[in-house]
Amino acid sequence: MKHFFWIALILITATSYAQDVAFKKIIANQKVDPTLATLTEAEQSESGVVLKNQLFIEYTFDSLGQFSCIQGIYKRIRINDSKAIEMYNKIILPVPNTNDLLYLKARSISKNGTIKEVGLEAVKELEEQGRVYKILAVEGIEAGGELEYISLFRRNSTLFGSEILQSDIPVRSSELKIITPSYLQFEAKVYNAPAAIGTDTLNEKRTTTVLVNNLKPIHEEKYANIKANLVRADYKLSYNLSRGEERLYTWQSAAETFFDYLRTGLEESKKAVDAVLVKEKIKGLAPEIAIKKFENYAKTNIAVKEEEDAETASAILQKQYASKAGMMRLYITALESLNIPYEIVVGTSRASAVFDKEFDSWSFLDEYLLYFPTTKKFLDPGSPILRYGMIDQFMEGNYALFIKKKKAGTETIPEGEIRLIPFSTIADNHDDLAMEVSFSPAMDQVQGKVTRQMTGHQAAQLRPYYHFVKAEEERKNLTNEIIKSTLKPDVTYSNVQIKNTNLNSDEVFKPFILSTDMVLKSVLERAGKKYLFKVGELIGPQVEMYNEGARQFSIDMGNAHSYKRVMKIRIPEGYKVSGLESLKRSITDGKAEPIMGFVSDYKMEGNLLTVTIDEYYKQVLQPLETYEIFQKIINAAADFNKVTLLLEKK
């Protein structure tokens, strides 16, 4: 899709041909500098340092007058340890075809100044998991030395893009240059770091330069969208001054382009789609029922293949597979035939980027949804595991381009608007545990019944597996994993019941329920005449966030959700319980109406001990300054695992 429009839409007047791109001149003047950098104390403690990172993207015309895009990369990296050697002794080249490589050199510079150089002749292919990579092995890399890497290659002539400027190691300087004929004007914006952005024009060439300095290394963190938080530069073509001062590639022009693209073949496909609607008895149903039934048909009979070109709805029905864009065409044709109002939604996952409604780059337009204004619900045609009313949790909370039909006389035209896709709420997403247990007469185990009930995004983590896995043995293995992760690995269980697993029925809108009878020995331990009852372990293993370095990124919980746990424990006759006060805990963010917390309590009625736990996260995105209390709440469940009661005869 991203390569569909560009050459047709650029509307460039080629007045001259650029035989030499700027980066070629840099290569020609490049001299190997054997002098090693002097590192700061902080830099010496890292595996390595990117001393300089330069990216050149030049839009030009080749000798035949064809519009093309050339990218140059220059990197200079200090190697401090074996980890960095492992990271950089093989360079993965960003080209699928070796013919697109115009220049390539990699040099190792040792501590004593010895230089070893490899180039195009050393490029090899590597296949991993069905994908073929071009790699360049670099000789002579050693701790205390440096690596210099230069490449020049042809790339797709997309008129917008995104470049990551950060690395797994510190970056002293990262620079992006976008070079074009002077009448083409690109705009750039940097996210997640301060940057200097400037433009100059010389010899009929315009250069837009982005510079960021002193970038910290990337570290993985729990509950964080690493990719979306990386320092990156987005850019887009905004003006072609040879044809006027009208802004190019606006949100409205995107609406018009996607509207036409996703409705391609609509009229010619209506007959074939109508036949399906009649055969499946969808015609004439109430709109919401019709949507659900057609979705079940499409997701049962049409496979999604990412690599496929988008085809018309009628061709998809014949082949029974489609790209995500093709699936959109199929649904849109059906909705038109059923006369059901809809809006096309094009956006991006917030795990990849926060949609910037102020910067009209089409880089943010890579995922499709449908929105139904009558019911205010969404549908994801490309997801085989989600059904009407639920979309990928990372599409929630991000802005997107909504495209609706508008009548202009006898014509139907698109109208685009940037709107926020709302989050699902804590009421939608539950993972609840109900337990009734008692002690064996020999006081060597606890036994009882456990029921786990899940809704919304929490249920979507398990329900699809039961829908698609039909083999009895595989189902047993899946159930075994779930029960052991819900309780403890040493649990023994029987009489398992699983409800509401069918994605193609109303079961998908009901809670997913798994219940079982269980026996646990490891939660009970004899200590002389007393018994240690590890009641906290009944809630199963919990996420821990201990011993981490300084937090880098803000918090993303995925979705608003809660865990409610109710444990009814029958204490044996003649025994008393000590340590009950350790069951009472209240850790929240301290607000008058808390948005996150872990609250546990107990009640003793006769010999029935009832323990209740409410762990909740009402707000998906939380700022960095809340991390300390967030960490305490997350760890509260793991701390509860350690609660032990003492049972002894009265």
From TrEMBL:
Species for this entry: Runella salmonicolor
Domain DUF3857: 74-218
Keyword Signal: yes
Signal peptide feature range: 1-18
Keyword terms of this UniProt record: Signal
Record-linked InterPro entries: DUF3857
Protein name (Swiss-Prot/TrEMBL): DUF3857 domain-containing protein
Keyword Ligase applies: no
Superkingdom of this protein's organism: Bacteria
